[in-house]
Amino acid sequence: MQPNDLLTGDLRIGVEHRVRFCRAALEATSGTTPPIVEELARLPRTATGFRPRMLPVVDGGFAAANPDFAARLRRTIESAGSAMPAIDEPLVVPGGEGSKSDPAVLESILNALDRGRICRQSVVLAIGGGAVLDVVGYAAAIFHRGVRLLRMPTTTLAQDDAAMGVKNGINHRGKKNLLGTFAVPTSVLCDLDLLGTLADRDWRSGFAEAVKIAVIRDEALFARLERDAKAIRERDRSASEPVIRRSAELHYRHILEGGDPFELGTARPLDFGHWAAHRLESMSNHRLRHGEAVAIGVALDSTIAMLDGRIDETTQRRIVATLLELGLPITAPELDDLDGLMQGVEEFREHLGGVATVAMPIRLGASAEVQPPGREEVAAAIAILQR
Amino acid sequence: MQPNDLLTGDLRIGVEHRVRFCRAALEATSGTTPPIVEELARLPRTATGFRPRMLPVVDGGFAAANPDFAARLRRTIESAGSAMPAIDEPLVVPGGEGSKSDPAVLESILNALDRGRICRQSVVLAIGGGAVLDVVGYAAAIFHRGVRLLRMPTTTLAQDDAAMGVKNGINHRGKKNLLGTFAVPTSVLCDLDLLGTLADRDWRSGFAEAVKIAVIRDEALFARLERDAKAIRERDRSASEPVIRRSAELHYRHILEGGDPFELGTARPLDFGHWAAHRLESMSNHRLRHGEAVAIGVALDSTIAMLDGRIDETTQRRIVATLLELGLPITAPELDDLDGLMQGVEEFREHLGGVATVAMPIRLGASAEVQPPGREEVAAAIAILQR
How many whole angstroms separate alpha carbon A100 and alpha carbon A129? Predict the structure, then answer.
């Protein structure tokens, strides 16, 4: 035995991160194979003579608005024959952030995975908004140390941001995303047609993440959002879809090329406006949707950036006006509780560890990592927004 | 929007997997820095002006046998100054497989992590046997989507096998390791001196994994085990330590070089004897230690391999004799319940998915992946072992 007897080496892994945008994911339009069948047919079949299984887990909001979806899904999969997994009865779970806070939701998913004999060659099909994708993704990541996950996001927010990510999570002890893992989904299928039944409020909410990433990454996307805000609010597809698609790509590229997909550093450069947003969500007991809280956080941090001299007043006004024209809020009663709000900085720091920085715009389309704002700046910015 | 509008690319990560063997991990022997201080000093300090924290979580069995350990640990860390994390009061958890089955143990660890404000730059120090390393590793892997984990294995089994792995887990719904993740620990520090207070039964138990890997990977290690079995049983350090070290290295090399560290395929080539072992553990309500169950599983599968003509009778007899000379069991009353035992094949298959294969020796030091044994072969092998 040497005094310094060491085994060392690097464990290297490469995993495909695959996102596909489509329409009519379940339909064989003009003789083609339905996109969902194509995605499932791609899964490696490591074992011969064995048919994997698939458990769909569906967001209750989406299921209620699309009562025939489960039957169409089954027909599509079954008519594609034995190359497809054997499909289970779908499990419907409540939508929205509450599903991430209720341990019974996670438990019901784990029970369904066990009853459905989902193995490491089988697939969980998560259909829903960002919260449902998070809790189903978490269940899939811990069951048998990770089973395959196919995500079908059903909200603007999930399609333009959340479903691009390689993380999952649930809330615990009253803290957002206290438990979770980093895990690359097997495949992400964004069917733009699924957005048709979304409630207006949820439709609008998702564009807050597009504004967020436009402000810090892409001036052209911001100009498009500014120009088309009214048409987007009114659900014009030709105005909305390019924005969703571009926002998704910016989020996707950051994960693939940003150099820190698993967030080992002390910054989360895409989380502009999010220190306040996460806090406002929990202060409002989730009355505020994530996207609405992000809109307020983006308005707040843009105003702080103006007060700090990082961006000019015209830029701040353009950002706030675009949020308003999209039908998004820029204030909430919770902003009056400054002490409560400032805890958001502390929680952001605690999650990342160390002295976390926050992203702040330095002009349209670019940002810098800076120290989190102080109490006085935040108060001054709130006063401006409330006028 | 193109009909096939795809974002694709590979997410690549490389993580160091680092294992260090030492003695006196807490001591500054002859003026050197204590090994534990060296390991902690290596952690990247991404944030300046911020001191990470460290929560020790200690196996109850080890804590009872080493009542001064926690105080010595604190003194060592504190006297190394501010380059070290701020150390919390240790959390003591029950040792053994029961800690993986009791949700209260996981919850108590998560609560301590939250109370101790462990962030993604902070460290969980897991001190214990394989079961404790598994449940603490799982808690560390899901808390804030993964905090740093330093493992200090305290049993022969953990040092010669379990702590080399890149996985963790807990039992759920009565199934072993139903929940867990793959996660590379930040560092593994094997202090051979920690084995001194281990109970004899636990001491012996760990060598079952050394026999297992010797039979399928290293004829020279098997010859050494065969030759030194009595000395090892009697806890002669010069006989035991090279075996522990070599077994650890073989397990480590397999993970780093075996091509499937996260078990995406349908085989677990090191799990020779384990389909029966996992099942025997749960059939005996964990009266059988993992190592004891592995000894029985290795004896059983070696006998099946002989009946199948894969190895000769001399080889089978040498394997069984070595296990017995090490003080390990080769049978248990649970073998009489053949139906119950055969469920082990099904559970093994379900965890991996598909038609799992099992590793079987083809001569000393080499193995092949073959179809799991049938009921008749298993019955015949049991009859031979029971004679």
Answer: 12
d(CA A198, CA A127): 13
Query: In this predicted model, what pLDDT tens digit does every residue of A241-280 receive, in sequence order?
Result: 999 999 999 999 999 998 888 887 777 888 899 999 999 9
| Total Cβ atoms within 10 A of residue B246 | 20
CB B138, CB B169: distance < 8 Å: yes
Structure tokens at A166: 């390689």
Q: A237 and chain B: CB distance < 8 Å anywhere?
A: no
Could you tell me if the ipTM is greater than 0.85?
A: yes
- What CATH number is given for B19-198 in this structure? 3.40.50.1970
Of B331, B249, B347, B230, nearest to B284 by C-alpha is: B331
- Chain A residues with CB under 8 Å of B22 CB are 3-5
* Segment 139-198 of chain B within 8 Å of chain A by CB: 141-147, 166-167, 169, 172-173, 175, 177-182, 184, 192
Closest CA to B297 of B320, B313, B315: B320
pTM across the whole model: 0.95
Which residue in A has a C-alpha nearest to residue B166's C-alpha? A11
Token digits for A347? 């929680």
**Delimiting residues of CATH 3.40.50.1970 domain(s) in chain B:** 19-198
Domain at B201-386, CATH from 3.40.50.2300, 1.10.540.10, 1.20.1090.10, 2.20.28.10: 1.20.1090.10
